[in-house]
Amino acid sequence: MTTGFADVRETEPVPGRSLPLVVEPAYAGFDLVKWAADNRPALHRRLARHGGILFRGFTAGSVEVFHHFITAASGEPLPYLERSSPRREVEGNVYTSTEHPANEAIFLHNEQSYNLTWPLRIFFHCTVAPAAGGATPVADCRRVYQRISARTRDRFAERGYRYVRNFGSGFGLGWREAFQTDDRATVERYCEANGIEHRWLGGERLSTAQVRAAVHQHPESGETTWFNHVTFFHVSTLDPVLSRALLSMGRDRLPNNTYYGDGTEIEPEVLDELRAAYHAETVVFPWREGDILMLDNMLAAHGREAFTPPRRILVGMTQPVRTTP
Predict the structure, then answer these.
(1) pTM, two decimal places
(2) Listed residue (152, 141, 134) closest to 289, CA to CA
(3) How far is Cα of residue 13 from the mean position of the Cα atoms in its chain?
C-alpha cells in the first residue's frame, strides 16, 4: 500500500536547477500507476513547482504501463491535431515522438502552442534508450521569460506573433497529414473555427496564417510564461545550410516561418536573444529505458538532441486548454 511521497526518493538532476524533479521508488515492486492515482493532487503541486518530473526506475519500457500512468496521473490521452511533425499512433492516443532525421536536433518548444487548443500536460516514455545522444532537453519557460529583455517581452505581448505555413512546397508535412483529412472543406471548417487564414494556391499548395499570443498566464497558477513557437518555427533557427536552401525558394514558399503579429519581420538580434534565453535555461539528462517524463507543457519547453539509433520515445498529451483567437 502506498502512503504518498514518503514511498519515493526525490532529487534534482542538476545543481541549482529544479527541472525536472527526479522521482525514484524507495522499494522494489512499486505500483507506479496506483500511486499516481492515489497521489494526483500532490503530484500536480510538485509539477507546478518544478515544471517537470522524471520518474525513473519504476518500470521497463512498456506502452501499456505508460498509457495507464498517463490516465492515472492526468486523464485520458488526447489525439494529435493540427500536426506540424510526422509521428505514428502506437495505441490509444499514445504516439511515437517526432520522426525527424536522427542526425538533426530539434529546438526547444511547447507542444502545439500555435493552436487555440493545446495540451496542458505532455508525457514522454523511453522504451529504447539511444545508443548515443538523443536526450530530450528541457527549459523552464518562466525563467526563459525573465531572461528576455523587457523591450522584447513588451513588443511580443502587444503584437503577438504570426505563424505562416505553406503546404505542398516539397518540404514539411502536406495538408492531408497536418489536418488528418483528404477533404478540403473539412480543412476550411477547421481553419475558420480556429482563427486560421487559409488560401488554396493550386494543386496541393495551401497557405495558412494564424496570429497567436507569445506570452501567457498559466490557467492554474496565474504565472507568466513564454509559451509560443516564435523561435522554433523561424527559418533562422534551422541549420544554416537548410535555411539558405529554403530561403532560395522565396519567403512565400517557406514551409514554416514566424513574424510579428502585424506581419513585419522579426529582427535577427531579437531572434538571437530568444535563442540565447532558451540555451541559458536548458537542462539535459540522458534517457534510461523505462524513464517517464511528465511536463507541464506551459511551464516547460522540450526539444531533442541528435542521436545514434536505436532510440524509441513515446509521447502522450492530456488536459486540453482552449483560448480565443
Answers:
(1) 0.95
(2) 134
(3) 21
HEC string of the chain equals CCCCHHHEEEECCECCECCCEEEEECCCCCCHHHHHHHCHHHHHHHHHHHCEEEECCCCCCCHHHHHHHHHHHHCCCCCCCCCCCCCCEEECCEEECCCCCCCCCEEEECCCCCCCEEEEEEEEEEEECCCEECCCCEEEHHHHHHHCCHHHHHHHHHHCEEEEEEECCCCCCCHHHHHCCCCHHHHHHHHHHCCCEEEEEECCEEEEEEEECCEEECCCCCCEEECCCCCCCCHHHCCHHHHHHHHCCCHHHCCEEEEECCCCCCCHHHHHHHHHHHHHHEECCCCCCCCEEEEECCCEEEEECCEECCCEEEEEEEEEEECCC
b/e per residue, 31-63, with b = 16+ CB within 10 A? ebbebbbbbeeebbebbeebbbbbbbbbbebee
- Residue 55: beta bridge partners? 23, 292
pLDDT tens, residue order, the chain (325 aa): 345 788 899 998 777 788 999 999 998 889 999 999 999 999 999 999 999 999 999 988 899 999 999 999 999 999 988 887 778 899 999 999 988 899 999 999 999 999 999 999 999 999 999 999 999 999 999 999 999 999 999 999 999 999 999 999 778 889 999 999 999 999 999 999 999 999 999 889 999 999 999 999 999 999 999 999 999 999 999 999 999 999 998 998 999 999 999 999 999 999 999 999 999 999 999 999 999 999 999 999 999 999 999 999 999 999 999 998 7
